[in-house]
Hints:
Layout: H1 3-27, H2 32-41, H3 45-51, H4 65-70
Helix pairs in contact: 1-2
Amino acid sequence: MTAMTWIVVWGVTAILSSVIAGGLAGYKNRDYSFWMGSCFLLPPLLVVLILLPHIKGPRPKRPSLDEEDKHWY
């Protein structure tokens, strides 16, 4: 296999892993943007997400940029 083939295979794997991680993180009530980004950069992290348990209760909400900036002086 040529280098171009390896790059294409890694890219397709990264994109598919990211899409699957987004759906799975939403199902498991986790922060989907973190898991999509992490699994895009390192596709094997999808295995870690699969092994994590489902969180009960409301989905965690990230603070907005305004809320984060309010605490910085």
